[in-house]
Task: structure prediction
Amino acid sequence: MIGGIKDYFPETILIGEKTFGKGSVQTIKSYLDGSSLKYTVAKWFTGKTRTGIDHVGIEPDITLELDQTRFENGYDNQLEAAKRQ
Result:
């Protein structure tokens, strides 16, 4: 999602952590003998530039790690930083 947003609205500032980089869609075919085959059926790309993100991810403009302890208590430090932009 953010890849498409950044392509069409490049002035958008991304705050947070690098995305995971999962850029493929996979499926599993099961067989009667109990075996199975997992294979890729599609690849994800960003919008306009069609940049592949598989094993790469997307880097934020401002890196800010989520404070998990505060998040569990109802405070999102990444969201608050974005509000200040």
User: Anything to note?
Assistant: Helices lie at 2-8, 68-72, 77-83. Residues 43 and 51 are 11 Å apart (CA to CA).
